Amino acid sequence: MDSFVHRENLKLYRKLLAETTDEQKRRTLLKLLADEEARDAQPAEATPHLSEAEQHAIAAGAVGLVPGLPQK
User: Fold this and answer.
1) In 24, 33, 49, 58, which residue has its Cα 20 to 30 A from 7's Cα atom?
2) How far apart are CA 45 and CA 42, in angstroms?
3) For the whole model, what pTM was predicted?
């Protein structure tokens, strides 16, 4: 499940970056994307454990993860 969430986060952050021109939102998204990409270089046991509810929220579109972006 963690690898699915990871891939979906990467896709979402890249999609949102392509769609927004607001500089503050772009900085936030770039930070989130960099953090998510850094997970590729870390061993699996070093990634934080997410609750099942958090995993579902992220998989459903990361509603509320990026402040200031419209809710789905």
Assistant:
1) 24
2) 8
3) 0.56
